[in-house]
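Re: that chain you flagged

S.,

Sorry for the slow reply, it's been a week of failed gels. I finally had a moment to sit down with the sequence you sent. For the record, here it is as I used it:
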Amino acid sequence: MFVPTESFPSLARHEVRLRIRRGIGGRRDLRFRFTGTVPLRAVVFLGDEWDVQWGMWNETDKHGLRLARDNATLEMRLRFFPMSSDPADDEFQVNFAFKRTTVKDRGFRLRTGPRVTFPVAGRAGGLPAAELTVYTGEVSVLAYLPAHDLAAAALLLATADTETRRNRRWRVRPERAQHLPPELAVLGSGRQSGLLSADAPES
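Prediction finished late last night. Pasting the C-alpha cells below so you have them in one place:
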C-alpha cells in the first residue's frame, strides 16, 4: 500500500488503544476495536501497491463500523466472502468497513482460512493477544494479505480536526488538510470516497 503512513504534524496526535479479535465468522471475520481519549472519526483504506480505495466514514452508516460524533470508541471489520457456494469458484469478496474488492483466490487460501499478517503489531502472523497502541493523525496498516498483496488501513482523526457539512458529510478541516501529503489532500475537499492510484509499473 503506497498511502503514506508517517505522522502528519497538521493533525492532532492522541493515543488510541486497539484490540484485534475474531468475530462470529472465525478466521474469515476480524474486528478492530479502537478506544480513544477524544471523540474519533476515521478514513478507511483498502488496496494494493497500485490502487487504494478510500472513504470517509459516515457516523449513521450501519455497516462494519459504528461511530457517533461524540464517541471515542469505534469498530471496523475485515471479512472474506466466497462469491458463490461452488467450492471450485475461486472468487472472493474482501470487505473492510464499507469498502470492498474482489480477488482471485487460486490457492483457496481464503476459503480454508486466510493468512493475515498485522503490520500494526509489527508481526508476521498470529492474532495479537494484547492491546496495541496507535495514534490519531497517522495511517495505521491494520492487516495485510500477502497472497493477494492486499492491505486494510485506517487514518484515525480527532473529531476536532474535522468539520461536519450538509447531509452528515464531513471532511478534514481545510487549513489542516492543505499540509497533508498530496495523496491525502483530497480529504479536505468534501468528497466522501474515491480511488488513489500510484504510477503504473514500468513494463
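What I noticed first: The chain has a mean pLDDT of 84.

Talk soon,
D.
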